[in-house]
Amino acid sequence: MGDGNIKGLILSFRDQKRFISSINPFDELNSDELDGLIKGIDIAFFKKDKIIIDTQESPQYLYVIIKGEVRSEDNRENRVMIFHQKDSFDADGLISGVSEYRYISCQDTIAYEIKKEAFLKAFEKNRAFREFYTMCIVDRIEYLKRKERTTSSGLFLTTKVKDSYIHQASIVDGSTPFKDAVKASLELNRSEIIIKNGDSYKLLTDSDIKKLLYNGLIDMNKPISNYKSNPILGIDENDFLFNAYLTLIEKNIKRLVVFRGKEIIGVIEQIDILSHFANRSHLITLRIEKAKSLEELKEASSGYMDMVKRLYSQGVKSRYIAKLVSEINRKLLNRVFTMIVPKKYRQSCCFIVMGSEGRGEQIVKTDQDNGLIVDDSLNVEIFKPYMEKIGDILIELGYPPCKGNIMVTNPFWRDSLSGYKKKYRIG
Known about the structure:
42% helix
C-alpha cells in the first residue's frame, strides 16, 4: 500500500475507466471486463525513494502510474527500466507469484492499485490481454509499435487546437506609437503585432514591417494604426488542429490567431502543428527556452518520454533518438544555468556534463554526472550557492543524484581551471 491517502484527487468510476482504457493493453478489454478490473481499485501515494515492491516479494497489485516516475532495479541495484505516466508494473510478478525486480519511486508518485485477483481474472478471460503479457519483450515492443501507428493518424484528425502549443500574442492598442508596439512584440519574441481598435483587430506581420522599412515609410512615433495592416485570420481553441493546418495551407500563411469566444488567447504557427504530429521536439525545446520558472521548466520537459516512445514506435533508430534527447537536455541545462547563475558570472565558468549524457547517449533521464570549471580570476566559492541550487532543480526535473557524488554540488567537481590541471597533472 502507499504512504497515505490522496487529498484532492477524487476520480469517478467513469474517469478511472476512461484513464485505464486509454492504456495498452487495457484497451483490449470489453466494457464488462474493464468494470471488473476497476471495481475496488485504490489510489496510492508513494513518497520519493519508497520501495513499492521488493525483489522476491509476492506482489498484490498491478500499479498504473497516474503521476510521477518509478524505476526497477535488479538485486545488484542495477537500473532495469523507468516507468512514467500511464505505464504499469509488475504484471510479470503477479503472473509468476514472485517479483524479479525492486520497484522504487524516483519522485513523489501517485498510482492506481489494481487488485491481483481482478488482474488475473481479466488475464484468464481475455485472450488478447493475456497474450500481451505472455509475449517476449521483442514481440511486446512490436505490438506497441503497431498500436501507435494505428492510433497516430486518428490523433491527427481529433486533436484540438488548445492541445497544441499556443504562443502568447502581442496585442497593442491602435494609438500605440510604432516604436513601442515593436518593442512590445520583441519582448514576447513575436514576429507579428495584433492591433486592437475598439472591438476589432488587425494584424501587422514581419513582412509588412520589412516592406514599410524598405519604402522608407516608417515614422517611429506615429500610431501603429496609421500603417496598412491585414484582416485577422483566426480559429477557435476548440476547433480541430487539422482544420487549422488546412486553413494555413489554403491561405498560404504562417500563423493563425487563436480565439476563446471573442477573446484572443494567442497565436499558433504552422511549425508548431507539424511538430505536434511529428516528434514534438520543437515544442519541447521552445517551451524550455521560454520557461521563466521551475514549474514552467517541469511542464516543458514533461513531454520528453512521450516523444521518445513516439519516435521509437515510428522505427527511429535509438542512436538518433539519443542525439535528439541530448540536444533537449542541453537546452534544459542551459536554461537552468541562465535562470540561476547571474549574467556577470556566466562567461567566467563552464558547466560540464559527463557519462552517458556527456557522450550524447542518453535516452532516459539518468543520474547526474556534472561539474563546473571556473576561470582563475574568480573565487570558486562564489558559485557554491548557485551550483547547489542547480543540483536541487535537476533532482526536481527528474535527474537523480549520482551515487558516486560526481556532481557540481561536490566541491571536488567545482574547481578553477588551474585546480583541475593540478588534480589531473595537466601542463
